[in-house]
Amino acid sequence: MVLGQSVVAAELPKIAVVATGGTIAMKLDPTTHAPVPALSGEDLVSAVPKLKDIATIAVTEFSNVPSDYMGPDRWPALSRKVDEILADPAIQGAIVLHGTDTLDQTAYFLDLTLKSDKPVVLIGAQRNASDVDADGPRNLLNAARQILADGSVGAGVTVTLNHRINAAREVRKTHTSNVETFNSGEAGILGYVDEDRVVFSRKSLRRQTLPLPDRMPRVDLVSMYAGADGSQVRHAAETGAEAIVVEAYGWGNMNAEMHDAIAEVIAKGVPVIVATKVYDGRALPVYGFKGGGNTLLKAGAVFAGDLTPDKARILALIALPATKERAALQKLFDK
């Protein structure tokens, strides 16, 4: 093809866009002057005319909700829908439009459960579509360019905002409003979408794929805080939690009251996973004071390593229907 010659739509690669909602699909309500869901996936694609120059876009309207509404009740259906879309040989990859509050969690759930190795890119926006400098259109175009780039296949599910490509397992939101909000801490980004091409620097070595279970168990997340008495841990177990993730301090430490509560619920058959609220580093069973990680290990707790508490819960959601056995769970968290 001669450079500059137009390409008919039939010759363009095909990319799927799955819309779920989020700030990227919001505009200011004329009465309340607050952002609310307003735009469909088709609307968002139409707002980026350059897309039609590089790909044929097939839009699926999955939902239009704030990402705060996304969770175990929607994640399995989303995973099945994306897998169904990617099973079409004509589809080169999928872009999932999503709010940023839980975008990293949805990305990790999909990374754990999707069967296809085609590129899946989750994007969102920190600014709603009414803002004059809305970041959604650029993120959408960059995601399409990433899918079409060499090296995109087999990279796993990624989160790509503000040009930077992050692996689903490692990425987290770090700022409430800045467009440079997602990063991967010590692991670093996978690459970036530049003006002339997409540059990949590495692939994540920590990925794993698990069967999507038939049901989502109840896994509660409880935080350690100064003066915690363990009552929330006991309440979670007494009201039906099938496992509990505890957001601990440091390497995985808490006070004596939390230790006692955790030991009690583990003895009753409820697995407890210890994660750390510290941004970088791992939860490890190091300290020997009562409530220190080493004493929690002896009580039977599982350690989440460098997974955030939110993502430790997601791995537990997928793993628990298959096993509650401590060694088997620890092996999954150690991967």
Q: Which bin fits the share of residues in helices?
A: 25-40%
Strand tally: 16
Oligomer: single chain
What is the H/E string? EEEHHEHEHEHEEEEEEEHEHEHEHH
Judging from the principal axes of the Cα atoms, what is the shape? elongated
Distance between the termini: 46 Å
Number of helices: 10
Which range does the strand content fall in?
A: 15-25%
Largest sheet: 8 strands, mixed
Strand order of the largest sheet: 4-1-5-6-7-8-11-12
Mean pLDDT: 96
- Alpha-carbon Rg, integer: 21 Å
Structural class: alpha/beta
Uncertain regions spanning at least 5 consecutive residues: 1-6
Short summary of the structure?
Helices cover about 30% and strands about 20% of the residues. It has about 325 residues and is an alpha/beta fold.
Please tag this protein with its features.
single chain; 335 residues; alpha/beta; 8-stranded mixed beta sheet; 4-stranded parallel beta sheet; 28% helix
Describe the protein in words.
Helix 3 crosses helix 4 (103-113) and helix 4 packs parallel to helix 9. The strands form four sheets. This protein has an eight-stranded mixed beta sheet, sandwiched between helices. By secondary structure, the protein is α/β, with parallel strands linked by helices. The protein has helices at residues 41-46, 51-54, 75-86, 103-113, 136-148, 231-238, 256-267, 293-299, 309-319, 326-334; strands spanning 14-19, 26-28, 35-37, 56-61, 91-97, 120-123, 157-161, 164-167, 172-173, 182-183, 191-193, 198-200, 219-223, 243-248, 272-276, 302-303. The chain starts with 13 loop residues before the first strand and ends with a helix. The model is unreliable at 1-6 (pLDDT under 50).
